[in-house]
Amino acid sequence: MTEITLSATDIRILQILQKDASISNVQLAEMVGMSPSPCLRRVKQLEASGVIQKHVALLDRKKLGLGVLATIQVRLQRHTEEGAEDFAKAMNDLPEILSCWAMTGRQDFLLMAVAGDIESFGDFVTHQLLSMPNVRDVQSSLVLKEYKNHTAIPLPKAP
Questions:
Q1: Is 70 exceeded by the pLDDT of residue 159?
Q2: Range list of H helices, the chain
Q3: Which of 150, 2, 33, 56 is nearest to 13 (CA)?
Q4: Which of 74, 77, 94, 123 is deepest in the core (most CB within 10 A)?
Q5: For residues 144-158, average pLDDT
Q6: Which region holds residue 103: left if phi is over 0, alpha if psi is between -120 and 50, else beta?
Q7: Contacts of 27 (CB under 8 A, 6+ apart)
């Protein structure tokens, strides 16, 4: 993993874009104290280096009828690299799965999933996850209330 050295300006740009990536380049340049052309070049460099992976819209899942948020711990039957890769690829094809992480400890994977209601979540677990060939068992926990759900990551202090 290659670590990128960020300038104070880069860090400020990233802080602003993590809060609102929809602002115009002119607004961003103003907020950072640059002219628009060099600011845009900086953003393009951050994108090219992979620091900025993509720009997305964050949606309100509840307003879209997805009232259930759950974590799901999955244990596999066979602990081979191929079995883990196959499972991870299958998770990419399931729109209900928001995140999928390979884990240390008793569980092999930790998933974050959404569903419209408890019944549809139960159907998803029963008919999708538990029917997969290499899944040994699953244990799910329903989120009762969200206290923090941020996408912004902590940035280093400006040099």
A1: yes
A2: 8-19, 25-32, 36-48, 81-92, 118-124
A3: 33
A4: 74
A5: 91
A6: beta
A7: none
Return the ∠ at Cα 60 (arms to 129 and 150), rounded to 5°.
Answer: 85
Give the SS3 label for residue 30: helix
Name, in order, each residue with C-beta under 8 angstroms of 100's C-beta and a sequence gap of 6 or more: 88, 91, 92, 109, 110, 111, 112
Question: How far is the C-alpha of 129 from the C-alpha of 111, rounded, in Å?
Answer: 11
pLDDT in tens, 9-40: 999 999 999 999 999 999 999 999 999 999 99
Torsion of the alpha carbons at 157, 11, 57 and 61, rounded to the nearest 10: 0
Six-digit token pair at 1?
């993993």
Q: Structure pTM?
A: 0.87
Locate 69 and state its tokens.
Answer: 């948020």
